[in-house]
């Protein structure tokens, strides 16, 4: 007698969407549905952030379900949001696009009903989730693009029917609109925050500009033999300082796509001061990183001119860099300035600005307050480099 090998359970085996139309459907509660829609509309207009939790709560209630939630598509996986019921403990988890009931629903773009899907999807069984039935509806934005699903899981012994599918379809429309509104609100807040930071940066840089200009006037006066020489030297340095300030301001420009040599960035920023010692190979920076690094170097030079090596006649700065497949490493070393007795007692805006600016391009900064002067190590990832040796 031949040994019978059990056939593997497939997605088609658990998809019972055709049963929705054949199951008895009770008389709809149109008044209750109307009140629910009115409540959702009010929340959308006044409190968009409350819409998703309210939507899933309504889905749970109107479908007499065990659990409900929203799965938002992000690249090749879904993220579970606004979960309610027994599955709420899985809030924020992710599921695969190409191996999940949500993926099947988006492929069909129709109401999808599955029975015991854990038989076909091992990750559901491995998570200890028991799903008698799950009803999923696609979430679509205005242009018909699918962005996720809204779903309900039945209680043991209960079954979904066409009436539930109709209700969930209406809720799916509101869910898609709500997600767009939430995204728009988040984008607006991010823009406002960016503008607030920009205002703070500009205020900080303008103050520094005048402080450094005052320092340049004093230093130029001390090292000029005649008034004419002082004026000439001072004008050159102030113009160079203005160039560096303008280059740093381009931190917010979005139309500059041309790569820039790293050495050019450093020389432009430090032109107002005594020539730094530069050591490093030719490297081209992507436009996105050029302005960021300019701002960082401008801040370091400003602080050195106010408090560090560039504030004295004998001080200088040495900048070295190298790059490989992992990214760019740069060191800034000051010496010949005032003796450093340790790190500052508080973190100033300039330090925060440097950290945030580098973090925005996945870079990092480390500072060491050596007695002979500040040492700074700057790291930038490989994707900011257009060209590097080797």
TrEMBL record:
An example molecular function term from Gene Ontology annotations: protein histidine kinase activity
Top-level taxon: Bacteria
Catalytic activity from the UniProt record: ATP + protein L-histidine = ADP + protein N-phospho-L-histidine
InterPro entries per the UniProt record, alphabetical: GAF, GAF-like_dom_sf, HATPase_C_sf, Sig_transdc_His_kinase_HWE
EC number(s) from the headed UniProt entry: 2.7.13.3
Domain called Signal transduction histidine kinase HWE region: residue spans: 201-282
UniProt KW keywords: ATP-binding, Kinase, Nucleotide-binding, Phosphoprotein, Transferase
Keyword Kinase attached: yes
Cross-referenced Gene3D superfamilies: 3.30.450.40, Histidine kinase-like ATPase, C-terminal domain
PANTHER family: ETHYLENE RESPONSE SENSOR PROTEIN, TWO-COMPONENT SYSTEM SENSOR PROTEIN
Protein name: histidine kinase
